[in-house]
Write a structure and sequence with these properties.
Layout (H helix, E strand, L loop, with lengths): L2 E12 L2 E12 L3 E5 L6 H9 L6 E6 L6 E4 L10 H10 L5 H14 L15 H14 L4 E5 L7 H14 L4 E5 L3 H7 L2 E6 L2 E7 H6 L4 H11 L1
Parallel strand pairs: 3-7, 3-8, 5-6, 6-7
Antiparallel strand pairs: 1-2, 1-4, 8-9
Helix pairs in contact: 2-3, 2-4, 3-4, 4-5
């Protein structure tokens, strides 16, 4: 498989705070990688680093997947004060697609996530689950090769979580998925590999079955036990 990202001894700082330290990681095309760890462990920073939103302070990052073939979804997706269709179409227009064609593609993407009936509504008036589905439609429309998802169902009610997770599974088909999550069940359903972070360090990197069923470093074991209790 094609190597997409290769990190070696990477540090990332926010002022005096070391968000990632001496981190190493390689990700290949087609992998489904879950990033897990407590709040502040570095999951979001790692996603932003891979997407090119933050630079390394030390170490090396070889990024073989250019930003234009990536799409990133956040816990709280940013919605412009415009219709859901325009929020999706704008992503295409910014990449050079004619506006009328962008609107047609956007409408198809919204239909795919079950939101055709709210296409003309102001996206900021939609529920959290609907906004996350608009964000997925926006990502879908641009046909990315890599999906980076930062706790995409963390703030949703159970029904919305199920809907969005099912759409993520469909959207990730044939693509590389890198997902930050606190939900062990979700990780088992969506990922094939688990990377555990603790205080900015990568402490475990294992196939999903080996991570949940095999021996782990003490910190990772305590985290998993607490999350699944």
């Amino acid at each position: 498989m094609t190597l997409l990202f290769e990190m070696r001894r990477v540090d990332v700082r926010y002022g005096r705070v070391m968000a990632l330290r001496d981190a190493g990681l390689s990700i290949r095309a087609g992998e489904r990688v879950a990033l897990i760890g407590a709040n502040g462990s570095g999951k979001s920073t790692l996603l932003r680093l891979l997407h090119g939103l933050v630079p390394p302070a030390a170490g090396t990052l070889a990024r073989h997947a250019p930003q234009r073939v990536q799409a990133m979804l956040f816990q709280r997706p940013h919605m412009l004060r415009a219709s859901a269709r325009s929020n999706v179409a704008l992503a295409l227009w910014l990449r050079g697609t004619a506006w009328r064609h962008a609107e047609r593609v956007a409408m198809g993407a919204l239909e795919r996530v079950g939101l055709a009936d709210v296409a003309t509504r102001n996206a900021r008036t939609l529920s959290g689950g609907q906004q996350q589905r608009v964000a997925l439609a926006r990502a879908w429309a641009t046909q990315p090769e890599v999906l980076l998802l930062d706790e995409p169902t963390a703030n949703l009610d159970p029904a919305a979580k199920r809907d969005v997770e099912a759409l993520i599974g469909e959207a990730a088909h044939g693509r590389t998925l890198i997902l930050a999550s606190h939900n062990p069940g979700q990780v088992k359903r969506l990922a094939s590999r688990v990377v555990y972070l603790e205080r900015g360090r990568v402490l475990a990197d294992l196939p999903v079955d080996a991570f949940f069923d095999g021996p782990l470093p003490a910190e990772a074991h305590a985290f998993v036990k607490g999350e699944t209790a």
